[in-house]
Amino acid sequence: MNQRSATGAQAAALAQRALGIARDPAFQLGMRDLSGVSLGIAAWALVTGVAMVKSGMSVWMALFMSFVVYAGSAQLAVLPLMIAGAPLWVVWFTAFCVNLRFVILSSMWRSYFAHLARRHRLALSYFSGDVIFVAFFKRYPGGERSPEQLPYFWGAAATNWTVWQAFSVAGIFLADQVPLSWGLGFAGVLALLGVLYSMLTDRTTWSATGVAAAVAVAAFALPLKLNILAAIAAAVAVGLMMENTERRLREWRAGPAKLRAPDPARGERNPVLPLDDEEPRP
Question: For the segment 170-184, what is each residue's pLDDT rounded down to a tens digit?
């Protein structure tokens, strides 16, 4: 009885917290930001649902895959393998390689959500996606934590998940009426390109994007779509290198830092290089 009461109390607290997040203005902002690319997401989801059924998968299995896997790129990558009767380990390994990019992306989420409980972070990992990542880092690029970031994420995630599942389910049930020759999946790519272009604001982002595109094309022959992972890794490496170079260049242009006189009260005997957060002496 006590365990049931405790479970009910936890569920009530979780519902109350979810309601508070949904009422936050940042939640509505996240929904608005994702609504701009919802048309492309819808087209991508529709063609994914159609492809699952036309690959020979049953309706119930396609629904299971849509709600549990929730990874359009991985779903489309493994479908040809399933049709060809590839071994199960090949199917799993292909999906693993396609989704390895989220390991890199999750390292960037840590600055914002590492303080949350593990079960909350697991929920974030399920709902996170490429479009959400792009929209979030366009809105909060500095890596500094603020209270409105979590409601913003959930607003964007709720919009993305709802649109995706609605049109994926529609594609599953309307597979006989929607031919794959329409090429609707390309609309999702165009939506991502539109959001990506709005983030190209300086030399670093342009260079990282150019390197990613070049590596993705050069490594296209790699199996299991590993060219995607190679492109992301190269872009991150180039971006970090350029940021570090620009920071050092700014420090060099600013000239050598000025030393302050030693403070005997602090046990200092030699001139000291002041820290940025050091309190000024009276």
Answer: 989 988 887 666 665
- Identify the CA nearest to 227 among candidates 238, 237, 235, 217: 217
User: What angle, rounded to 10 degrees, do the helices at 226-254 and 88-98 form?
Assistant: 20
CA quadruple 63, 68, 72, 76: dihedral positive or negative?
negative
**66 and 206 together in one domain:** no
In a domain, 280, yes or no: no
Residue 243 and residue 110 share a domain: no
User: d(Cα 265, Cα 44) in Å, to the nearest integer?
Assistant: 67
Residues 128 and 207 in one domain: no
Q: Give the domain extent around 247.
A: 201-255
- Residue 250 tokens read as 């700014």
H-run or E-run covering 226: helix 226-254
Asked which of 2-11, 98-107, 111-120, 172-181 is least confident by mean pLDDT, the reply is: 2-11
pTM metric for this prediction: 0.69
CA dist 41 to 96, 130, 184, 191, 196, Å? Answer: 22, 11, 10, 7, 15
If DSSP codes are grouped into helix, strand and coil, which group holds residue 87?
Answer: coil
Tell me the two tokens of residue 178: 């929607």
